[in-house]
Amino acid sequence: MKTILLTGATGFIGSNLLETILSENYNVVGLKRSTSDIWRIKEFLSDSRLKLIDIDKVPLDNIFTKEHIDILIHSAWSGVKAEDRNSLILQLDNFDFAVRLYHLAINAGVNKIISLGSRAEYGDYEGRVDENYPCNPTDAYGIAKMFTSRLLQTLAEQSNTKWFWIRLFSLFGPKEDGKWLLPFAINKMLDNEAINLTGCEQRYDYLFVKDFCKGIILLMNSEISGIYNLSSNNSMQLKEILFLIKDILKSKSKLNFGALEYRKNQVIHMEGDSAKFYNETNFSISPLINSLTETINYYRNIKV
């Protein structure tokens, strides 16, 4: 049975990855901090295939000497909220951690490294972008992600290590922080409360987090390498998605579009062309209405 080293195991993305990887019968060494909130992974704490390590108490190199790691999945990243994206200290810490992590993994003979990037690497753009679109990040977060991808590519190719840099666009699903738009709107609509919104004319290509996790499983069993966009590959206006949620819930909430102003320099159409990923992995996604219904049921159940 292969062992996966998963960073960021307690976060929104990491916890969903943990659930999916365990369901595929892998062993998992999950990295977290001693101060991490483990509410997202409580149901897995008794699973004998999971070993959690506090990286603020155990030296990183000890993990690679004591554990045989087959695949590294690096999903941890601090400073993703808007107010932290230009924090040089946070973003440099992220880069420094990745440098140490990749070096140790490669020196330990890890077979494959899967690391998560971001649409922020492309900077501000309008429309649909593929992996050949030039990177021009506009904040420290995007810059740090871009240089981390270049570091990974260089180290992996020099050592003949399989590698993937997955540029994510918009994810949604169970266990997302309730302050983000879709869970915030779902919780409001469950209570039939009015919601003040911008015009919500932005077009995003939201990907269900469980479909994303299935995509990572495909990479774990793939022999390809490289940089890949990963999105639903089908953008929709936020307004359309919110109306769909309202219809599923049969909510009486009033959606006050235009009550809030767009933020300065708001991008209206931000979409990733993920054809390369879909074609090379035979990836497919769930119908949006099914994914939204599953997400709604999750938030409904935790409110009970």
Describe the global form. Answer: globular
Order of H and E elements: EHEEHEHEEHEEHEEEHEEHEEHH
Count of alpha and pi helical runs: 9
Low-confidence stretches: none
State the CATH superfamily name of the largest domain.
NAD(P)-binding Rossmann-like Domain
Enter the CATH topology name of the largest domain. Rossmann fold
Distance separating the two termini: 38 Å
How helical, in percent, are the residues?
A: 25-40%
Task: Please state the average pLDDT score.
Answer: 97
CATH architecture of the largest domain: 3-Layer(aba) Sandwich
CA radius of gyration is 19 Å
Strands of the biggest beta sheet: in what spatial order?
Answer: 3-2-1-4-5-7-12
Major pleated sheet: 7 strands, parallel
Text of the CATH class of the largest domain: Alpha Beta
Question: What is the count of distinct domains?
Answer: 2
Extended strand count: 15
| Helix and strand composition category | alpha/beta
Percent strand equals 15-25%
